[in-house]
Amino acid sequence: MPIFALAAAAAMTLAAPAPPAPGFKIEPLGGGIYAAVRTDPPGLMVDANSLFIVNEADVIVVDAPEASADMIAALRKLTDKPVTYLVNTHWHDDHVIGNAAWRAAYPGVRIVAEASLRAYMASTGAANRRHMIEGAPPFAAQMQAQMDQGKNLRGEPITAEERASYTSDIALVRRYMQVVPQAETVLPDLDVEDGIVLLRGRRRIEIRYLGRGHTAADLVVWLPMERIVATGDLVVWPVPLVGADQSHVRDWPQTLDALLALSPAVFVPGHGPVLRSADYPRAMRDLFADIDTQVDAARAAGAGTLQDVRKRVDLAAFRVRFGGDSKVRQFLFDNYVAAPAVESAWRDSVVTDH
């Protein structure tokens, strides 16, 4: 998913080279199931993971990122079976922009998404894409200019970790501009409200809607026999991705509780490495639950505006928990959690009151 909040920057020529293809690795999970996991360092700009479920006669794919053409090539090295279903876990470009590539490669594929995705892609999604196309290159150019001066985005001396992160971000912006502006928008064929089940021999593939979180359209794909779940951006490592105007922090803890109640042994997150423990999803749950509690307490104490609420919410302990001593992860926490998550929780609490 592209940057939620682009910093203002003057337009400049982007000189960074295109990222080396494919930018992901294929990780076998057993039983014909493979995770296509991005190998980029943590940064502001991301592309999504994907999941291939290879069955006796067909393949089910989860998510259609910008790198879908490369992922299709990787899948064809694994099997010549047709892809019959493609699941979009939610509506952001890095999970849907590859729909056209998958349809071209596998004309019979049916695209599955939560029911509200169709309307979003044609309206808000199209507007957000235009903003990214206009804003991402100058923002990446600003990052390059800061690196050229030996500084980070805060104007401080840049670390090696930050330089690697910015270099990756700039390359991903360049790839985004190569893929997205000319990509055809392909809408889903099948809307999901509560969930559907696909049966493939002994394998049961459950496409579930557990509730709102990262967006109002989050789906998960659960394989109960293998205890593998593809979470979309309900789970993102190393810090959650929160959009103040699109995420639902007030619902997110309950949705993660529903996810954890499945007792997965393997989590394939929307971004980040395959997780073989529930510790990180639990940490996300605790973070959002604490934000909700603090926002409620601030409002009960008389904070009547978002600005007032922000002054009363303290996320320092969680900033350490998710960011550690990494300047990159701390910066990501500030951008993708501290500011937007408090606003999301505040906004939904105000709506509930009315």
Q: Which characteristics define this entry?
A:
globular; seven-stranded mixed β-sheet; 2 domains; Metallo-beta-lactamase, Chain A; alpha/beta; 354 residues; 19% strand
Shape: globular
Mean pLDDT: 92
CATH superfamily of the largest domain: Ribonuclease Z/Hydroxyacylglutathione hydrolase-like
Distance between the termini: 32 Å
Pattern of helices and strands? EEEEHEHHEHHHEEEEEHEHHHH
Structural class: alpha/beta
Strand order of the largest sheet: 1-2-3-4-5-6-7
What gyration radius follows from the Cα positions, in whole Å? 20 Å
Describe the biggest sheet? 7 strands, mixed
Number of domains: 2
Instruction: Give the DSSP E fraction (strand runs of 2 or more residues).
Output: 15-25%
Please give the share of residues in helix: 40-55%
CATH third-level topology of the largest domain: Metallo-beta-lactamase, Chain A
CATH architecture of the largest domain: 4-Layer Sandwich
- Secondary structure: number of strands: 12
| Number of distinct helices | 11
The level-1 CATH class of the largest domain: Alpha Beta
> Which residues form runs of ≥5 with pLDDT under 50?
1-20
